[in-house]
Amino acid sequence: MLVLITYDVNTTDAIGRGRLRRVAKTCVNYGQRVQNSVFECVLDAAQLVQVRSRLLGIIDLERDSLRFYMLGNNYKDKTEHFGAKPSFDVTDPLIV
To answer: CA-to-CA distance for 37 and 43, rounded, in angstroms?
Structure first.
């Protein structure tokens, strides 16, 4: 299923900036960044539990925000993209 992960980490101090880097690095392991704090991830149920647990272990629940939007398997009918960054299919293989 396609899961959109979004976050807002308080970066007013060095500890917050460190949390922000750790959150971003964790998300990169599960999907592709589509905006600064937004990742599109194709996950199964076990991967969703795993990434949620890892991210909840990083963020400060009193200062930060973390959201998961489960768009399901028919996400192509539920998403539209407009603007500068080209749209891509997150299920296509990555060529590095």
So the answer is: 18
Q: Give CA–CA dist 52/24, Å, rounded.
A: 13
Q: Position 4: which residue type?
A: L
| 64 Rama class: left (phi>0) / alpha (psi -120 to 50) / beta | beta
Please provide the DSSP assignment of the chain as one string.
-EEEEEEE---SSHHHHHHHHHHHHHHHTTSEEEETTEEEEE--HHHHHHHHHHHHHHS-TTT-EEEEEEEETTGGGT----SSSPP--TTSPP--
Reported as half-sphere exposure (CB side, CA atoms, 13 A), residue 25 has a value of: 8
How does pLDDT run across 38-74, given as a tens digit for each residue?
Answer: 999 999 999 999 999 999 999 999 999 999 999 877 7
**What would the two tokens of residue 93 be?**
């293989």
Answer yes or no: pTM beyond 0.85. Answer: no
